[in-house]
Design a protein that fits this description.
By secondary structure, the chain is mostly beta strands. The chain has a domain of 71 residues. The relative contact order is 0.21. It is extended. It starts with 54 loop residues before the first strand and ends with a strand.
């Protein structure tokens, strides 16, 4: 059973030309800001009936047979012009093949491999 209690409520209101100039240690200043951000995303991949894609993003790591179909893919080359490079790699356990492309290129991937690509334009299935 509670026989003694204390309830205290305090509120402070500031006013005038400059709240900051009259603030003391018990005052709090809350400012709310709204920011707008523009986010640019890569176009969505073309999804096939089996859940794999026929066009994949130029940057990424993909499991062949789960994320993308086995087959041959083409890229127009590096993003950013002639001084850029497009890196592509096929892995299974060790690296099977890799290359730095200065222009367009082809890669053929098989089920179970990992396909990695960095700095390339999108890859589109050609067969």
């Amino acid at each position: 059973m509670l026989t003694h209690g204390l309830v205290a409520v305090g509120a402070g209101v500031g006013g005038g030309k400059s709240d900051a100039a009259t603030a003391n240690a018990s005052d709090h200043l809350v400012r709310t800001a709204t920011a707008t951000a523009t986010v640019t995303t890569k176009p969505a991949a073309s999804t096939q009936q089996d859940g794999t894609v026929s066009t994949i993003a130029g940057d990424g790591e993909h499991q062949v047979g789960q994320d993308m179909r086995p087959g041959t893919y083409r890229t127009a080359g590096p993003v950013g012009g002639s001084s850029s490079m497009c890196y592509r790699e096929r892995d299974k356990d060790p690296v099977i093949a890799n290359d730095n492309l200065a222009g367009s290129g082809l890669v053929t991937v098989r089920k179970g491999e990992i396909f990695k690509s960095v700095g390339c334009q999108n890859w589109a299935s050609v067969r």
